[in-house]
Specification:
The protein is α/β, with parallel strands linked by helices. It contains ten helices and nine strands. β2, α3 and β3 form a beta-alpha-beta unit.
Length: 262
């Protein structure tokens, strides 16, 4: 469901619906959902709103303050920041939900190991400086990619003509460092994956190093092709998690990968 369109959320609600789960910005098309409006839509129905805030982290976006009941984070990504741990977090401001979640936590046992906990705490210490620099690089790269002859579309929330730009500026203090872009053809997309050297071809995101992903073969490979296509996830789409490297190095790496060699 395209949750950036609130009417589609409302259409899907049923008497037995217990929760609505949204991700904003979405992976990999970077669509933005109005969290406060979504919360208002479902609150009167007694339905919980759960928000995946992995892409923006609490540094740029705080869904609980916008009306969400539960927020989830992949700590493996930006919170850890170094792609060297696996962790997840469930956050709520409700005492009732906290007590219910704590009971599940105690009985099922999904507790984080001490060393992984230390790695997350270490990562959070540099979260602010990492997010700011990675966002700066992402903005510069998205602007540069838009002018490249081998790129037909760039999906980055920080671009003023992005459909979710206005909503994002209201509910977030930043745009993050995730970009998706579409190449002129499948051959070009695959060539980029083979040629990048500074950027690494890998599935994760949110670390200090830049990673490029091919959604149709990695993150969204299990989704039927027709459904992927309806969401704009094609063989020409690449997802880029922008890291802390020099912008000039990243630009040169992508430019070399995109160019046709004769």
């Amino acid at each position: 469901v395209d949750t950036s369109d609130l009417t589609r959320i409302e259409t899907c609600l049923k008497p037995e619906t217990k929760a609505v789960f949204i991700e904003t910005p979405t992976n990999p098309m970077m669509q933005v959902t109005d969290i406060a409006a979504a919360a208002e839509l479902i609150r009167s129905r007694g339905i919980l709103l759960i928000v995946d805030n992995t892409f923006l982290t609490p540094y740029f976006q705080r869904p609980l303050e916008l009306g969400a009941d539960i927020v989830v984070h992949s700590g493996t990504k930006y919170l850890g920041g170094h792609n060297d741990t696996m962790a997840g977090f469930v956050v709520t401001g409700s005492t009732e939900l906290h007590d219910r979640l704590r009971f599940i936590y105690k009985t099922v046992g999904p507790c984080l190991a001490p060393f992984d906990s230390w790695l997350i705490l270490r990562g959070i210490k540099t979260l602010a400086v990492r997010m700011e620099k990675q966002q700066e690089n992402a903005m510069l790269l998205s602007q540069w990619l838009r002018g490249h002859q081998k790129v037909t579309a760039v999906h980055y929330v920080g671009l003023p003509d992005h459909p979710g730009y206005d909503v994002s500026t209201r509910q977030s203090t930043g745009f993050g460092a995730m970009i998706s872009f579409e190449t002129t053809d499948e051959e070009t997309a695959k060539r980029v994956l083979e040629r990048v050297r500074v950027i690494q071809y890998a599935e994760s995101l949110g670390g200090v190093e830049s990673l490029i992903t091919y959604p149709i073969l990695q993150t969204h490979a299990d989704i039927p092709e027709a459904q992927r296509s309806s969401k704009g996830i094609s063989s020409r789409l690449l997802r880029l998690s922008v890291g802390l490297e020099s912008f000039e190095d990243l630009k040169a790496d992508l430019n070399e990968a995109l160019e046709v060699r004769t």
